[in-house]
Amino acid sequence: MPLQTPPLRGLHDERGAKFTEFGGWDMPVEFDSIRTEHAAVRDAVGIFDVSHMGQLHVTGPDATELMQRLTSNDVSRLAVGDSQYATITDEDGVIIDDTVVYRLPDGDGNASDDADGDPTYLFVPNAGTDEATHQRWIDYRNEWDLEATVDNRTDEYAMFAVQGPDAVELVDGVTEESVADLERFEARYATIDGVDCWTARTGYTGEDGFELIVPWTAAEEIWTALDCQPCGLGARDTLRIEAGLLLAGQDFDPDDDPRTPYEAGIGFTVALETEFVGRDALAEIHERGVEERLVGFRLIDRGVPRHGYDVTNPEGRVVGTVTSGTMSPTLEQPIGLGYVPVEYAEPGTTLQVVVHGRSKKARVETTPFIDTV
Amino acid sequence: MSFDVPDDRRYLESHEWALETDGVVRVGISDFAQDELGDVVFVELPDEGDDLAREAEFGVVESIKAVSDLYAPVGGDVVAVNDDLFDAPELVNEDPFGDGWMLEIEPADPDDLEALLTADEYEEQIA
Hints:
heterodimer; A: about 375 residues; alpha+beta; Gyrase A, domain 2; Alpha-Beta Plaits; Elongation Factor Tu (Ef-tu), domain 3; 6-stranded mixed sheet; 6-stranded antiparallel barrel; 8 helices; about 30% strand; globular; B: about 130 residues; CATH 2.40.50.100; 6-stranded antiparallel sheet; 3-stranded antiparallel sheet; 4 helices; transaminase activity (chain A)
C-alpha cells in the first residue's frame, strides 16, 4: 500500500528533511539533527508536522453519549473549548489507543455562529488508526441505536505542534485573537492569515505550547507563518520519553503487548463512574491492583536501552522488557521506559538491562525524567 | 547531498573505511554512514589485543535513533582503540575520517586491503 503523505511533504523535502514510515505515513523524522531540534524545543521553540494524527468529528444529539461510552474519561466534564486525555479500551480494559478529546463550539465545528445546539467533539487517534477507529464508532453507534454523525476528517486537516518555552509568544504573535490566556487543555478557534485554526494548549513534549489543527489546503501558509525550528519525529520521540509519555504501538500495543491504563500509569484517564467499553474489567483491576507497571529507568552503565531489550533483576532473571529507550539529549544519560512487576517498580530499585548481550546496571526513576509543565 | 569520500583509503560495503599507514590499518565509518545515523551517542569497541576475523563484527555505533553493527575491513590484532569516543562519541559525526576513527588493526594478511572497495567504487555505491 502506498504511504500517505502529509500536505507539506514537498516543502519538508526541499528543506532537507529525512523521512520515515510511521503508521502508514511518510513523515519527516529529522530536519537538521535530533539533538538540535530537541534542544530548540527545550530551550526556545520548535514546530512539528503531526498531520499523520487522525481527526474524527462526532456530532448530533447523542454525540456525548457515544463519546462517553467509547472513551475512558468523563466527556460530560468538557465545556466548549475544553479537552481531555483519554484511552480507548476493549472489553478487557486493554488500551487500543490513546487520544485527546476536544469539545468544539456547537454546530458543525467550523464556526460558532451556526449552532444547532448539538454537542460536537473532535478527537485525535494515533497515526494509522483513524479508519479502524472511525469504523468502531460507527459500529457501536448502530448497535446502540444512537443519533450521532461520525466523520473521518483526517485528510481534511493538517496538524502542527508548536512546543517550547517560547511557543506561547510565537503563536500569540501570529494569531489575530490572543491565545495566551488559554489554560492547559483549553482550546479555541484562532485566525491566522484569515484561516480558522483550532488552537489548543496541548502537546506531547513535556513543554508548554500549542497544537493547531488547520485546513489541509491552508497548511503551507500556516506552517510558514509559525516560523521556528522545524522538528521531526526523531526529536518528538526523545522529548516524549524524557517527559515519560507513552507511544502507541511501543509502550502499549493491543496485539503484541496488551496493557491496561493502570499498568501504563495513566489511570487518571479512567473515570470509573462513567459507563464505557472496558469499564467493568477496569473496575475489577482497580480493585485488585496491577501485577506489572510501566516504570522509568536510567542506565548506570554505558549503553543505550532500546525497545524490546530484556530487563532482568540483579540475579539475572528476566522480569520485564524495555518499551522505549534513548540517550536523553537533555540529561546526556541513557533512559527508558518498561514494564516490570510491581515489586521492582519503586524508584531507586536496581535492575539490569541486557544491551547487546551484556547486562547493564539500571535504576528505577520517577517520571517525568525532566521538569515539565 | 554529496559526501566526502577520501581516495587515500578503502571501504567496505557496510560503510567502514580502512587506511593503511606503516603496516597498521586504521578503521572508522564514512561520512555517508555518520550522516545516515544522525547524532552518534555511543560507541562500543573491542579491547586492545583482541583478534578479529575479516568482516567480523567488532562493535556497535549507536545514534539517538539507530543502532548499527561495525565490521572489520581486515583481519588481525587490535593494536589501538580510540578511547576518546567513549567520552565524545560525537567525534564520529564531526570528523568521521579523522578524530572519529575507531580502532587500529595489525593485519594478519595485507592482501585483505586489496579486496575492499576503492573510493570510486564506494562513491558509486552511495550515489
